[in-house]
Amino acid sequence: MTTFHQLTATSLSGKLISMADYAGKVVLVVNTASHCGFTPQYSGLEALYKKYAAQGFVVLGFPCNQFGKQEPGGAEEIAQTCYINYGVSFPMSGKVDVNGTSAHPIFCYLKNELPGLPGGRIKWNFTKFLIGRDGEPLKRFAPFTTPEKMEAAILAALKI
Q1: What is the reported pTM?
Q2: Is 36 a catalytic residue?
């Protein structure tokens, strides 16, 4: 059986990222989009990342263009939105699919472990998955759940 820490992704800059690098950390996986009504959540996600990174918390952003074509650009445009417009410093992957036959293995795994909607599909951009230090998926959050409303769950996972 696959575990979260056995999975990999490709960074926005094209480098391989092993989820094993995050063993011992609390991870928040988010499917993102640069032209979505929820895009301002980048600011809240960055604030949580900065606030708790020293305690072992990391946010991993996964840009996706499957919902309303709200992530149409390439790596450079995505980087501009994330880094310049929102000051994002947490790791971002290259663009992925989160549903369907070409869904990224990380999202296949997380949807299987925390199905949410009937059929496990991701409904929209900024669906979030909280993963414990041991790699166990803990909680799934809806797109409309703001980063601030997740802080208690993050604190519980960090055990601080």
Answers
A1: 0.93
A2: yes
